[in-house]
Design a protein that fits this description.
By secondary structure, this protein is of the alpha/beta class. The protein has 16 helices and 16 strands. It has helices spanning 2-19, 67-83, 127-140, 184-196, 221-224, 241-253, 269-274, 303-318, 337-353, 381-389, 399-402, 424-428, 456-463, 466-475, 483-491, 494-499, and strands spanning 43-53, 57-62, 95-101, 111-115, 119-124, 155-164, 170-176, 201-205, 207-208, 211-212, 257-264, 324-328, 357-361, 374-377, 393-396, 441-448. Helix 2 (67-83) packs parallel to helix 3 (127-140) and helix 8 packs parallel to helix 9. Bound molecules: ligand TNX.
């Protein structure tokens, strides 16, 4: 009896609910332009009303490309994690979120959001654009609900429109997993947060003097021998090819491309430790766990060295769907200049043979390269200009601004200081547009070298919040980047970082609040 009565009430409720299509909520005045989105979108207009995200909101997708479903699922999960609302189960609703595939966007990462009282519509030409767009949606959902507007909590999203697209199609950060190894889980946690800030590339520095970190099936000693150490000693570590593929796939779900780097001909002590025939510095190879650089080199005039490199590039390229292969090429201080040039030119051919475009640190521009190669400016403006003279594109990573491994200030617990202290404002306050002709700039990358960090907490301390400012430097136009405004927006991101267990450095130049 009791049960049938409650069933009746339930039916009445459903009938009543489905008849009502609109409800009146008295929203406080809002301002979409004042929302704290990072990176700052290209254009925002505000219409001062509110969209209620609550238990009566649903989500629909209008797209031919099935990849939009993955984007919608990602948003559903993240909204549930933030608010407890499961958009997937609310088939009857007052407010509607929809993700639509629309043609006509000239940039593949572009998207538009139109927010009215009843609907929040995200339009994009591709799943990648939609994925960037849902990061903006996640950020305009307030951290806390309003409990006074109705009987249930409502997350009030300001109404208006956002039209957005990135300034650079390449917005990257690098992690050095060679000096100290970071697990697949650590990398995934980092990728999750990077995706929220629309970073689209993740460069993995997979080998260096102190350790070799990726399984190469045709040269098993690289990991058996070469992976067992790190800066300051063991325990080292490496990714099996399956581990690496797991990272590649996880990044791909976040529309992030992985760039693998095998650093050579210098920075190769761990490889030569495993296979001494590779060594070209004329000295007996021993384990090195110090932070020293510039003492190791491959033997650049031996055919067998190139057979080895061919295998390494072939195996890694086969499991790296992205367009790039990074050959390092920095600080080869004991490689003769002619040998270095001979080496880089030969290795570029191997990279091309496996269908990839070569990237190297700025020194590679001293060689005579094919124009499709990319130079990563970290140190020498002269080398960067040599690259431009050869019609190569540049990735900007000037150490004095972009190095996430520099200490914030003299009290920083971790980090180096050879390029100077880099407080949060210094890291943000520069213009990637102002160094070289913008047509020659592929994008920006903030590298995180790992000599002084061993754990994900230490990694996060150096990366956050500086990498967030970097994401904005890559995405937003110069006129949309103002330190004072950024500084206030960033202060609101502390809650997000804390909710996600990110050990950011609470820099005193930001008023973090509570
Ligand atoms: C220079 S940047 C290096 C790395 C070090 C880093 C430390 C570059 C291409 N080479 O080997 O880890 O400085 O900040």
């Amino acid at each position: 009896m009791k049960r049938s009565l409650s069933y009746l009430f339930f039916l009445i409720f459903i009938v009543f609910w489905s008849c009502e299509t609109k409800r009146e909520i008295d929203f406080p005045t809002t301002d979409l332009k004042a929302s704290n989105v990072i990176p700052q979108p290209l254009e925002v207009t505000a219409s001062a009303n509110g969209f209620a995200l609550d238990q009566f909101t649903n989500l629909s997708i209008q797209a031919n490309d099935l990849a939009f479903e993955g984007v919608a699922d990602y948003l559903t999960d993240k909204i549930e994690a933030k608010t407890g609302i499961d958009l997937a189960i609310n088939s009857k609703a007052y407010t509607h979120l929809s993700i639509q595939e629309i043609s006509g966007f000239s940039n593949e990462e572009a998207y538009e959001i139109q927010i009215t009282e009843d609907s929040l519509i995200l339009k994009a030409g591709s799943a990648v654009g939609a994925f960037r767009g849902i990061q903006t949606i996640r950020q305009i959902v307030p951290e806390t609900a309003n409990d006074t507007l109705a009987q249930h909590p409502i997350w009030v999203i300001p109404t208006g429109t956002i039209k957005d697209q990135p300034q650079f199609g390449f917005r990257s950060t690098m992690l050095d997993v060679a000096r100290h190894f970071f697990s697949v889980e650590d990398v995934k946690k980092y990728l999750d947060i990077l995706a929220y800030y629309k970073i689209n590339t993740f460069h993995m520095h997979l080998s260096d003097d102190q350790g070799w970190r990726i399984e190469i099936k045709s040269w098993p000693k690289l990991t058996e021998v070469g992976s067992t150490t790190g800066v300051g000693g063991g325990p080292g570590g490496f990714y099996t090819q399956e581990d690496y593929q797991e990272i590649v796939a996880y990044a791909a779900e976040r529309h992030i491309t992985i760039i693998p780097e095998i650093d050579m001909p210098g920075h190769t002590n761990s490889a030569s430790l495993a296979y001494p025939f590779l060594n070209g510095n004329g000295k007996k190879i021993e384990i090195v766990t110090s932070m020293a650089v510039g003492y190791s080199t491959f033997d650049t005039r031996k055919d067998s060295v190139y057979e080895f490199i061919d295998d390494v590039i072939r195996e890694i390229s086969a499991i790296s769907p992205g367009p790039y292969f990074h050959i390092g090429g920095d600080e080869s201080l004991v490689t003769e200049k002619d040998d270095y040039i001979y080496f880089v030119e030969k290795v570029e051919k191997i990279v091309q043979k496996y269908g990839k475009r070569m990237i190297g640190w700025d020194e590679v521009a001293t060689a005579n390269l094919n124009t499709s190669a990319v130079a990563q400016w970290w140190n020498s403006e002269k080398n960067a200009n040599l690259a431009i003279d050869q019609n190569m594109m540049l990735i900007l990573s000037p150490a004095k601004k972009a190095y996430l491994d520099m200490k914030y200030d003299k009290d920083s617990e971790f980090g180096l200081r050879w390029a100077g202290y880099i407080p949060v404002d210094t890291a943000y306050n520069w213009n990637p547009e102002s160094f070289f002709p913008i047509e020659s700039v592929l994008g920006v990358e903030a590298p995180l070298w790992a000599e002084t960090i061993r754990t994900i907490d230490e990694l996060e301390y150096l990366a956050f919040p500086r990498v967030i400012g970097f994401a904005e430097l890559g995405w937003s136009t110069q006129e949309n980047r103002k330190w004072e405004n950024y500084r206030k927006r960033l202060a609101h991101h502390g809650k997000f970082l804390r909710r996600n267990g990110v050990n950011y450095y609470a820099s005193p130049v930001i008023d973090w609040g509570k």
